[in-house]
Fold Transcriptional regulator, PadR family.
Amino acid sequence: MVLDMTSDATLSGHLQELRRGTVVVASLTVLRTPGYGYSLLETLSAAGFEVEANTLYPLLRRLEAQGLLTSSWNTDEARPRKFYRTTEQGDAIARALRAEWSRLDRAVTDLDAPTLAPKDAS
């Protein structure tokens, strides 16, 4: 498949849109174990989710405001770090989002599979 400049930009926009929602699912999944923002960035990057800090930190604040994450400061080290963890509601939302992701993946796979020719109605 050959992409021209217009379709390459179009693809880039659609990929960004697709990734945007997956970062929420991935973050809620990873933060079942407490972690701080930078370690979450590293974990997501290692798993193939390229997220910038200026995207992730507002997302974490939004998820916390929605009651899906809780945070606390660890001041035991030289640099204080804010640790995040999913709440019970955050865990439930993550499970529901992953289930929906699986359902959609199956549906798209089914759409992509060769179909049988419709039987002649006569």
Remarks:
- The two ends are 39 Å apart (CA to CA).
- The chain has a mean pLDDT of 89.
- The first helix runs from residue 5 to 30.
- The first strand starts at residue 35 and ends at 36.
